[in-house]
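Q: Protein A?
A:
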Amino acid sequence: MPWIQMKINTTGAQAEELGDALIENGAVSVTFQDTHDNPVFEPLPGETRLWGDTDVIGLFDAETDMQDVIAGLEHHPLLGNGFHHKIEQIEDKDWEREWMENFHPMRFGQRLWICPSWRDVPDPDAVNVMLDPGLAFGTGTHPTTSMCLSWLDGLDLAGKTVIDFGCGSGILAISALKLGAAQAIGIDIDPQAIQASRDNAERNGVSERLSLYLPHEQPENLSADVVVANILAGPLRELAPLISVLPVSGGHLGLSGVLSSQAEGVCEAYADKFTLDPVAEKEEWCRITGIRR
């Protein structure tokens, strides 16, 4: 059957509260999308990550009286009378097929491709990681993940050990293994992320070389030739004493999940132990890399 979609533009800080208001006023589902039309796919496990201007989109049954919905929402303290919104009718579609059609193999750097399982591999001789898109833990679509994948592709990982701090789907650890790393270690605070990483590693035939830990389970004195952490600026600063000791002397560090405006503060937290490269930027996000002194 057809559906009615209501879209409200707001700030990231208010998005979750307005999503709840839409549900309370009859929406059967709510999604969040940034105003650059990039779906917010990669929260830190257990958190809602929304940045900048955000569209809150509610989906309603076609029989819904939207005037009643509007009247109900006008009583919300974040909206009020005459709040800005857009309502449109949505055709009934095979939504799963529609969703699948929007995802294509993506190339990162010179060798690496991330490929959905239902698509043909563009280059059988390339380094291909099979990973299906999902809303929870990351698939390469977000600029921060994209920059980390390109960085890993540019390193000589042959025989190296890689730590993926905040591994989520395992995309970075698995890609490192496919790019030649001897072993990888994934650490995450969310058991669902650990399971997702384990499943994806098995799908890609690298599970025997990937060790996965919740923080309280990880071995003492972990170290690696390459450490990558694609999380958030706040945790990166707070956890700098822990993350800084993970790379061996001369080892590589890659940090992302950081807005360009936050880069200076994160760099300051690591500058005493690392020789840092110029900050790489993409779509208001940045990647910080360096070598352990």
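Q: Protein B?
A:
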Amino acid sequence: MNAVEFENVGKQYRLGLVSTGTISHDLNRWWAMNVLHREDPYLKVGETNDRAHRGHSDYVWALKNINFSVAEGEVVGIIGKNGAGKSTLLKILSRVTTPTTGEIRIRGRIASLLEVGTGFHPEMTGRENIYLNGAIMGMTKDEITRKLDEIVDFSGCERYIDTPVKRYSSGMRVRLGFAVAAHLEPEILVVDEVLAVGDAEFQKKAIGKMQDISQGGGRTVLFVSHNMDSMLNLCQKGVLLENGMIKYEGDIMSTVAEYLNSGNSDFRFTQNEDHAKTGVYVSSVGFTNQGKPSEGIFSFAEDISLRLKIRRKAGTSLDPKTVVSIIIMTLNRTRICNAEIPLSDMDDEKTFSLRYRAGVLLPNKYLIHVAIHIPNISYYDRQDTCTFTVYDNGTEFLKYNHANNGFIMFNPQVTEESSA
């Protein structure tokens, strides 16, 4: 059964300042719809929400033709660039604003955490705001009281729980807001980018709580974040928004791949004989997962598997000293490591499978460069072929909140010496 269903949902805004022209627009709309019994004339105008370019209409569709459903107990990640319509979608779902077209069908109570301090009264204490939020969700005082200690403990704000919320830092508001939303037993939890305000330790705890809510409690979570590590660790399904419309919908791995690669095939490389400038050339490079083609996204705990195909044109001689170098680089071309494979016994085509052991490359985005060459003499072919991403599925570095920890996990053997 579906917990949430979006059917042809759209949200239109008028750009610029509200002026006397607004009255005439409202009269035109009222006359067309109530007297002439026609559709809203302003639904026919407007442009997609491309914030980077000046348009020709005063009306813009922040969302348009949104159709998808979320099953009960499912965790769905809403992905997209700034201005894609993610927050507008969640605000409509949370009834902060109404859709211009379409409808949303919801089964169950919704708890939302859309912005820092949403739903908190600044003059009231943290404790009073917990009861206020619970009452808004339809819970009795006794139900909230039973959850109170658990909420306060999770938030880490016990010392300030009887202090007015207006004196809380933004991080404390997020901590308390998430604790309230997650513990007051909603059937549907809606979380926007606000977790980015919290520290790394709280982010990890919050993601763990959302996993418990969905897996243990069978509740539904809609999650917006620009942190793809969090998306991949938490969600099963993804929806990619672009300019207010759904660009892609599918499992979370393929949705993140679509987002990271911006629709390009950066995770695979092909070159045919007509385009090859040399007699021996890189024919294809791609990633695999359990023998099947992959989109180049690996967790820190997974091996990285690569398939490489080299071809030789008819009549091309091959020096016996020829090697294939497979170089892993950062995107700014810092070399991380190099592997060399002899190519002296090659026929017309040769295929190699390479596997890099898990737990070595730290979370980051990397480039595969392939060179066919006679060392220190000449090159047959060299290509920047494809990129891949290693995401953090719970390494010891998570607590540093995405600080630069280098590129290789290389732990020394440590011996503690006793003092003389």
